[in-house]
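ingest -> validate -> predict -> emit
validate: passed (alphabet ok, no gaps, 217 aa)
predict: started
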Amino acid sequence: MTRQELAQPPAHANASDRRPGRRPRRRLTVFGLIAAAVALAAVFGAYPLFDRAAAPVVLAVGDALDTSPDPAGSTGVAGGELPDGTATLDDDLPAITGLDPELREAVRQAAADAAADDIDFWITSGWRSPAFQEHLFDEAVRTKGLAEARRKVSTPEQSAHVSGEAVDIGPTEGDYWLIQHSTDYGLCQVYSNEIWHFELLTEPGGTCPPMLDGAAG
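emit:
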């Protein structure tokens, strides 16, 4: 074999690289990650006054890891969703602990009296973060259209759930029991189309204001 033949790689040396189904080389992926890291470093180094907490990359990573310390921007359980769909007032969940203390106490008294009457009574929704409320509104728009969504779901700016001043009660027998006894605790059904939604709007034994037709008022 000549020197030229020794220096020349075999004809089949790279043939496997062209086989169908072969996993592509990772060299470009590594180079891409390095390039991305250098670009991010350049951005943050070049702009020291840049609000890094609001940077799109930082926000995206924060959302993915759910590490945001701001409950207003949280969804899921941190934003008020109930993992099992229901809860009691003794559950240590943001949906419960975020409720107005006076409302929570009024509902607690009602729940105890309902239990004494052998009525099932639980919370199906309580406090919600603005982000979670926005998610519910957007989902209603997607599935029902804007007009119907406005009638059934409040925006974050209007929702009493966001301020911790509203609870949704279940099941239906619990709703009807509370409708009958709500003013004993200062609780009121707010919307005529939502038998489950109650707010603390009067004094115990008082009179509730007229109900609204829907979330849009």
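The longest helix spans residues 27-46.
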